[in-house]
Amino acid sequence: MKVLDKKTVKDYEALPEGSPYQLIEGELIMSPAPSPEHQRSSKRLFTKLYSLFEETKRGEVFYAPIDVYLDEENAYQPDIVVVLEDSKAQITEKGIEGAPDLVVEILSPSTAYYDLRVKKEVYEKAGVKEYWIVDPHMKSIEVYSNTPEGFRLVSEAKKEGKVRSELLRIELDLREVLG
After folding, report:
1. Which residues, listed in sequence order, are joined to residue 30 by a DSSP beta bridge?
2. Over the stretch 5-46, which tens digit does the pLDDT of each residue have?
């Protein structure tokens, strides 16, 4: 049986700029371009968060692609990332080093497994304070808060309604974000 060599951040950084890969648990995983539906959801949500942070100056919001380095075997490009003023994460020339305060993943058929399972566990262990899973197809948003027992679902909306982020102290109307 052949054992595959685990890749590290060093291998990831050796890729040409703009390469469509993420380093997930030591494996380079290709991420195809997102669908228009995915992009619309990302644009609407980013615009709302960007306006909030421009107004409050409590931190910064970034959209993909931006590298988030969590450890030597995990470098992700989440759809949206928030780094608050007092965050332990550092914004550097190469990306964000350490766990951002908030990570938003917008599900696509090709990435859902990683977003819902592998990456979610890594985000939890790394100390991401809040994790949002946005499903444009099902028209839903789930908000997870990182507790001493791990991620706990604290707010969700399907088809209609609002979700609440305690971390950001905001409510979002599902229809405004997912159309």
Report:
1. 21
2. 899 999 999 999 888 899 999 999 888 888 899 999 999 999
CB-facing half-sphere around the CA of 97: CA atoms within 13 A: 7
Find out whether 134 and 107 touch, Cβ atoms under 8 Å. yes
Query: CA-CA distances (angstroms) from residue 4 to 7, 58, 113?
Result: 9, 43, 21
pTM, full prediction: 0.92
Nearest to 156 by CA among 167, 142, 170, 138: 142
| Alpha helices, DSSP H, located in the chain | 9-13, 36-56, 112-113, 119-126, 174-178
DSSP-assigned beta bridge partners for residue 150: 147
Q: Which residue has the tokens 């107004």?
A: 55
DSSP string, 15-34: SPTT-SEEEETTEEEE-PPP
